UniProtKB/TrEMBL annotation:
Annotated localization: Golgi apparatus
Main localization (coarse): Golgi
Chain ranges of the FAM20 C-terminal domain: 167-231
Alphabetized UniProt keyword annotations: ATP-binding, Disulfide bond, Glycoprotein, Golgi apparatus, Nucleotide-binding
Listed name of the protein: FAM20 C-terminal domain-containing protein
GO biological process terms on file: enamel mineralization
InterPro entries tied to this protein: FAM20, FAM20_C
Residues that hold ATP according to the record: 99, 203-206
A Pfam family of this chain: Fam20C
Length: 232
């Protein structure tokens, strides 16, 4: 499994898999009672690693790739949401879901906004992790904030030509990229660095389904993204 990851963009020196990597220890510590134990020292280390580890690859998620042949436009957002997200892989083979900052923290959603284009709060992901831990549920994957250099840590390390094609330099000389997707296929929905640095949230991945089979329980409050009807 880990040998297959050697095809990702990497430094000249071959990358070595480390069994003591924080993301591996996080996966091994998952139980039926929570994603991590109350006294686990692994979470703190995992948050530090996601904040600082060098990025060696950037790509779409598997959900998005599965939809490439299902519609006329390339997917960046998942079918279960409308947020622009990318998968970043680190030098220790760990990976995280990157959700970029789309607006300032003091901006509020206008009352007349159509919910397809509602504001995307990257810091809500971070707050959800901390609130979940305070309430002692321990069901939300560790999530941390990070300043990402969109040029060096995304554009220059991705092998995906479609992802490369959505980058551009704005009139303000900031490096930007946008989503090609069913809901946000317009450049005005781009996210931009300043000029290269972009704040965002990084959420740790759970083990793959082939390593950790599990049930998926739909949210009872799921909403419909169709104008034709509502969810039951």
């Amino acid at each position: 499994m880990y040998q297959e990851q050697l095809n990702v963009t990497s430094p000249d020196t071959p990358l070595q898999f480390r069994a003591d990597a924080s993301w591996v220890q996080f996966h091994l510590g998952i139980s039926r009672h929570g994603l991590y134990s109350r006294s686990s020292p692994v979470v703190r280390q995992l948050l530090q690693d996601m904040r600082r580890a060098p990025t060696i690859s950037a790509d779409y998620s598997q959900d998005e790739k599965a939809l490439l042949g299902a519609c006329d436009c390339t997917q960046i957002v998942k079918p279960s949401g409308v947020h622009l997200k990318l998968v970043l892989r680190f030098s220790d083979f760990g990976k995280a879901m990157f959700k970029p900052m789309r607006q300032q923290r003091d901006e509020e959603t206008p009352a007349d906004f159509f919910y397809f284009i509602d504001f995307q709060r990257h810091n809500a992901e971070i707050a959800a992790f901390h609130l979940d831990r305070i309430l002692d549920f321990r069901r939300v994957p560790p999530t941390v904030g990070r300043l990402v250099n969109v040029t060096k840590e995304i554009l220059e390390v991705t092998k995906n030509e479609i992802l490369q094609s959505v980058f551009f330099v704005s009139p303000a000389s900031n490096v930007c990229f946008f989503a090609k997707c069913p809901y946000m296929c317009k450049t005005e929905y781009a996210v931009c660095g300043n000029p290269h640095l972009l704040e965002g949230s990084l959420s740790a991945f759970l083990p793959s389904l082939n390593l950790a089979p599990r049930l998926s329980v739909p949210s009872p409050w799921i909403r419909s993204y169709s104008l034709a009807g509502k969810e039951e």
